[in-house]
C-alpha cells in the first residue's frame, strides 16, 4: 500500500499507525497453518482529515516465494539484477515524471 496524497489512519488487528503521503508499507500474513492462504486479515483505513483529500494505492497478490534483493525502491531477485536496474535508472533509462502531468507527485518531491 502506498499513500499518494493526504494521510491515512490505519488499524491492522488493533495495531494503529498513521501514514503520510510518500509512505509505503507491505502487509502480510505470517501463518504456518496449512490453510494459511485462507487467513482473513481486516485492514481498517480512514482519512486523517475530512478537509483533505487522501489518495492511496493497494496492490495484492499471492506470495511468490522467490529470493529478494532490495535497495531503496528497487526490488529484484538477485544483487546482479538489482545493480543492473540501478545503473539503468542512473543512466536515465526509466524516463521521468513531470509535475505538469503528475501534479500529485509534488507532495512526494517536497517531503524530506
UniProtKB/TrEMBL annotation:
Pfam families from the UniProt entry: Pirin_C
InterPro entries: Pirin_C_dom, RmlC-like_jellyroll, RmlC_Cupin_sf
Location of the Pirin C-terminal domain: 48-95
Coiled-coil blocks: none
Entries under Gene3D superfamilies matching the protein: Jelly Rolls (2.60.120.10)
UniProt protein name: Pirin C-terminal domain-containing protein
Upper lineage: Bacteria, Pseudomonadati, Pseudomonadota, Betaproteobacteria, Burkholderiales
Amino acid at each position: 500500500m502506498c499513500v499518494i496524497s493526504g494521510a491515512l489512519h490505519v488499524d491492522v488487528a488493533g495495531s494503529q499507525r498513521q501514514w503520510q503521503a510518500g509512505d509505503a508499507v507491505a502487509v502480510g500474513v505470517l501463518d504456518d497453518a496449512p490453510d494459511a492462504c485462507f487467513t482473513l486479515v481486516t485492514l481498517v483505513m480512514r482519512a486523517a482529515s475530512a478537509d483533505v483529500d487522501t489518495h492511496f494505492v493497494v496492490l495484492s497478490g499471492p506470495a511468490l516465494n522467490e529470493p529478494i534483493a532490495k535497495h531503496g525502491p528497487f526490488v529484484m531477485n538477485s544483487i546482479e539484477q538489482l545493480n543492473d536496474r540501478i545503473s539503468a535508472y542512473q543512466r536515465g533509462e526509466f524516463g521521468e515524471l513531470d509535475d505538469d502531468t503528475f501534479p500529485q507527485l509534488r507532495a512526494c518531491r517536497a517531503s524530506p
